[in-house]
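Possible regression after last week's pipeline update?

I re-ran a chain I had predicted before the update to compare outputs. Posting the input and the new output here so someone can diff against the archived version. Not blocking, just want to make sure nothing changed silently.
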Amino acid sequence: EDKRQSSDFSSISSGTVSPVDVLETNELEKQDFSESLDRHIPEQRVFMVKQSDLKKHLTLTEVEGKPSVSGWTGQPQSVCLFHKEDQVLAINDLHTSSVEEFDMFVSKSLKNEVKVTILRHRGRQPLHWPNCPCSD
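New output (post-update):
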């Protein structure tokens, strides 16, 4: 048994597999895994949008029972605000659970600008003109 253990150790220390290589490989795998997770973790975003722009330019559909962005034809300065399938979480901090609630909250807002809270899944396509790159 002692001979087998020492031969196993000698094969490791002989350069076949170095403990440093194992550690470096594990660290790279952890980094790749966490980067992969980061790409799939949705992020919450909040921005102010003119009430009239929301009414005129935003198209929502319900995806899995939640209001989600399907179209945005906003002004040149706001073309990159929304991405396809952004989930609308709230309007002026009022949680929305349907397109009808979204419409009601926007129409009842007394301010010119509305606070929109969305949930964005990374990797979704921005809704802008093809020749207009997003800074996002």
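Follow-up from reviewer: compared with the archived run. The chain is about 40% helix and 25% strand. Marking as no regression found.
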